[in-house]
Amino acid sequence: MFKKSNIVSLMAAAGVSLFSAQAAYAQVIKVDGSSTVYPITEAVAEEFQKAKKNAIKVTVGISGTGGGFKKFCRDETDISNASRPITEKEMADCKAAGVNYVEMPVAYDALTIVANPKNAFLKEVTVAEMKALWEPAAQGKVMKWNQVNPAWPDAPVKLFGAGADSGTFEYFTEAMVGKAKSSRGDYTASEDDNVLVQGVSRDVNAIGYFGYAYYAENMAKLKGVLVVNPKTGKAVEPSAANVENGTYAPLSRPIFIYVKVKSLDKPEVKEFLEFYMKHGAKLTKEVKYVPLPAAAYTGNIDHVNKKKYGTVFGGKNEIGITIEDLMKREAKM
Amino acid sequence: MKPLTTEEIRAVIAKGKFYDNLFKAVGVFCLAFALLVIVALIADMVIKGSERFTLDFFFNFASRRATEAGILSAWVGSLLVMLVTAMAAVPLGVAAGLYLEEYAKRNLLTNIIEVNITNLAAVPSIVYGLLALGIFVYQFGFGQSILSAGLTLALLILPIIIVSTREAIRAIPAMIREGSMAVGATRWQTCRFHIIPYAMPGILTGVIIGLARAIGETAPIITIGALTFIAFLPPVPFSAADAGTTAGLFDWLLSPFTVMPIQIFNWTSRPDPAFEVNAAAAGFVLMVMVLSMNAVAIYLRYQMRKKIKW
Question: ipTM score here?
C-alpha cells in the first residue's frame, strides 16, 4: 500500500511540475471551431505570425462549430470559429463557466447548390422545389426528377449533401425545408466536401450543396444552380457580388469568430484581433469567401473598445439575413 | 493388394506435382496481387506529389497556399509523439509480457487478464482517444499536448507489444530455462541473461509493428485535440523562450502539436485541388517513415539473431 500511494503522489507531482512549466512558456493564442471559418482564420494566423516574426504563436484547430464552442465555454480556447451564431444552450454553458465573449462577424458564405455541367435541365430552383426534394417525407418516394417539377425529365435523382454534424447541414435544412436538421436520409452524406464535389462532377443527374469556396475552386467541374429569391421571385446566381448586394437569399449566411473577454487582457490577443480586422477583407477574398464592408471590421474592434459583449442573435439562427441587416444590427448593439 | 505398375506410380506422382505447382501458382498470384496494390499506391503518390519533393516542403510550415505549404510541424510532431509512445509502451509492454510468461501462476485471474489483453488489441482506436481525453487531457491536466498523444498511442499499442513479447518468450525452448536454473541462476538472472536477449528479435518485431500502426493513427489524436494549423515547433530543451526564460528539458512534452496523418487529412479536404498534390507528397513521406522504421527493425533483428548461439 505504501508503495502504491508513493507512486500516485509521484505522478501527481510530476503532473503539477509539468503543468506549471507550461504556464511559464506561453504566448500562444488558441483558436478552434468551425471548418468553414478555418481557411480565413488560418490565413490571418499565417500572415500575423509572419508579420510578428513568429514572436507570437497562433494555433488553429478544427472541431466543428459545436465542438469549438464546447471547448470555448470550458475556458480552453481564446477564440472560437463559428459558422452560425451561438445557440441558447451554448450561451448558458458559457455563462455557467463565466466565459464572456465578443461576437465578430468576419465574412459571408453562400451555400451553393450545384449540378453536373452536362445537366441541361437544372438551371434554377425554387425553395419549394428544394423542400419537395430534401424534406424527410421525400425519403424513398421522390426518386425521379419529374416528381419535383413536371418539366424535368424522367431521370433518377442523385443527392449529395453535408453530413448531419455540420453547420452547413443545419443551415441548408433550415433555409430550404423550414426546420433545422430536418432532411431525408437517403443521400450521399459527407463531412468532406471534396467527396461531394467528386460525386456531383461524375453524375449527370446529381445535385448537391456545400459552401461557396468549394464551388469557386471547382467551377470547371460543376455548375452553380440559380436559386429563386422568395422575396423578389428572381433567380439569382451564386456569386460574391450577389451575396454583397443581398439578392442571393436565403442561402447567404454570415460566419463569425467569438473572442473570450478574459483573453482580451492579453496584449497579443488584442493585437491578433486588430490584425484580423485590418487584413480580414483582403484575406477573406483570397480564400474565396465574401468579405464584409470595412465598417463591419472596424465595428468589431469598436465593440471590444466599448466593451459591448454578447450576441445580437439571441441564441437563434436566422435565415436569409443580408449584410445590410447584419450591419444595422451590429451598429445598434 | 495388387502392386502398382510403374505407370500408375508415375501418374500418382504427376498428380501430386500438378497440385504442388497449382498451389505455387496461386501463392505467387496472391503475393503479386498484394505487391501490385502497394506498388500502385506508392507510384500514384510519387507521381501526384512529385512536384512537391523539395527541401522547402520538409522545412515549411502549413500555409493556405498549396505551393508554400510544408510538413515541418507534422513530421516533427509525428517523431516526437512516437518517441513518447515508444518510451512508455516498450518498458511497460515487455515487462508485462515477461511477468505473464515467466512469473505469473496459471489461474483464473491470469486467464481473465490474458483474454482481456487479446481483446484490447481489437478495440477501435477512437475508444482509446475518448479514454485519453478524460484521463490524460483533463484528469492529469496534460492538456492537448505531445505527452497526451504519446501516452494515448502507447495504450493503443501496448496489447500488441505484450502479445508479441509473450509469443517470443514462448518460442524459447524450455531447456534453456532449465539449464540456466540448473547451474544456480535465479529466475531474474535467467530472464536477464537468457530469456530477454533471446526473445529480443521477436519483441522488436512487435514493437515496430505497434509503432507503425501508431504513426498512422488519426482518430484518437483528433479526439484528444491535435491541431490543424500550427506554425511553430515544440521548444528545444534549454533554448531561449519568451521573456528571457529558457525552455526546460521537458517543455516540449506539453507543447501543442500536429501529426502527419492529420496534415494529410486536412489537405485532402480543402477546397483548392492543388492541395491534393501536397497530400500525395506527404502520404509518400509517411510511407517512407513507416518503411524505414521496418527496415531498422529488420536490420536490428538480423544483428541480434547472429549473436544467439544455442
Answer: 0.76
Mutation target to probe the A interface, by most A beta carbons within 10 A, among B254, B270, B277, B278 is: B270
Using a CB-CB distance cutoff of 8 angstroms, which residues of chain B are in contact with residue A15?
Answer: 140-142
How far, in Å, are A113, A123, A251, A260 from residue A129 at the CA level? Answer: 12, 13, 14, 42
Sign of CA dihedral B142, B144, B149, B155: positive
Chain-chain contact of A57 with B247 (C-beta, under 8 angstroms)? no
On whether both A235 and A139 belong to a single domain, the answer is: yes
What is the residue extent of each domain of chain B? 6-51, 53-307
pLDDT band at residue B27, thresholds of 50, 70 and 90?
A: very high
Q: How far is CA A104 from the centre of its chain?
A: 13
| Closest to A252 measured CA to CA, from A175, A145, A156 | A175
Smallest CA–CA separation between B292 and chain A, in Å? 30
CATH architecture of B53-307: Orthogonal Bundle (1.10)
Identify whether A333 is part of a domain: no
A residues 27-66 closer than 8 Å to B (CB): 27-28, 30, 35, 38-39, 41-43, 45-46, 49, 54, 57-63
User: pTM (2 decimals)?
Assistant: 0.81
Whether A263 maps to a domain, the answer reads yes
Q: A98 and A128 in one domain?
A: no
DSSP codes joined into one string, B74-104: HHHHHHHHHHHHHHHHHHHHHHHHHIIIII-
Cβ distance B230 to A27 less than 8 Å, yes or no, reads no
Distance from the B76 Cα atom to the nearest Cα atom in chain A, whole angstroms: 16
**Over the stretch B290-306, which tens digit does the pLDDT of each residue have?**
989 889 888 888 888 88
Q: Nearest by CB to A46, which of B142, B231, B251? A: B231
Give the CA angle between residues A322, A327, A330 to the nearest 5°.
125
DSSP A144: B
A239 with A116, same domain: the answer is yes
**DSSP bridge pairs for A115:** A207, A223
Do residue B241 and residue A60 have CB atoms under 8 angstroms apart?
Answer: no
Under a CB-based contact definition with an 8 Å cutoff, are residues B94 and B302 in contact?
A: no
Please report, for the domain that includes residue A267, its CATH number.
3.40.190.10
Instruction: Give residue B168's identity as a one-letter amino acid code.
Output: A
Contacts of B174 (CB under 8 A, 6+ apart): none
> Considering the domain boundaries, does residue A282 fall inside one?
yes
pLDDT digits (tens, 9 = 90+) for B114-158: 899 989 888 899 999 999 999 999 899 898 899 999 999 999 999
- Domain limits for position A222: 112-244
Final residue before a domain boundary, out of A214, A244, A274: A244
